[in-house]
Amino acid sequence: MTSASGRGNMLLALAGLAVASMPFWASPYHMQLASTALIAAMFALSLQLLVGGIGLVSLAHAGFFGLGAYAVYLLGSASVLLSLPVAALAAGGAALGIGALALRTSGFFFLMTTLAFGQMLFFLFHDTPLGGGLDGVFIQRPSLIWEVTKVQRPVVFLLLNLSVLVAMYAGLWVLMRTLFGHALLGIRANEHRMRAMGHDVQRLKLAAFVLAGALAGVAGHMAALTDAFVSPDLLGWHRSAEALLMVLLGGIGALHGPILGAFALTLLEELGPLITERQRLVEGAVILAAVLLLRRGLAGIWR
Fold it and tell me: Is residue 6 in some structural domain?
């Protein structure tokens, strides 16, 4: 999985500084919109570890995202220092159980197996009292280290989401330069050769699947913390498809691709209603053009 060049990382840093400066010049609405894009970028980045790292497409990924969000709901007003690791552990634990079974298959069968498990997680919260209701429920945010007023929330959550995304990106950047990261790329390039060289391919895949699930849980936690709302919709398979779309739009195999794709898709969804009443038609046309004309995604233009 490639990362941005030195100049590209500098541009990413400048973009991060621009987002961090939004409290000085942006409205609360636009800061909330930026937080939404940052959370989407976290979610898509966690999926990129599978798609760009080892070439696996999972439709259960939204299940891990939703589990991270519902961990916040179930813990109530517990400190964020507790809710964040619990969300990651809950999502990672579910990924461990699902991955141990799903990774026994491959190709189309793996895709359908993850879809089945994802739907099971969805209906667990949709059809039982565990989820707090079919239409979702407003939650009590975990307590932060300091008291945050209503006026301060857009600023605080913007900076928190930016910090988590930066930490996630930096962690994956380092990970993909370790022996583990190189092994994942080797599996994506030629799984049979890696197995012939003595690598435990199944265990490496499972480790990547669990890590990706835990990171998706972190993204879900930040979504619940920011919106103070959870619903079974967070676990729907279409959420996994949206994350995959962000990866495709940004560029498969480019570590910074999901960030570009998430912000591009968020901007497209925001500007669509201003252009036409048929918003989805415009979005579909733009995405189709991007897929056909930009084989390497937005990261290809960047490069």
Answer: no
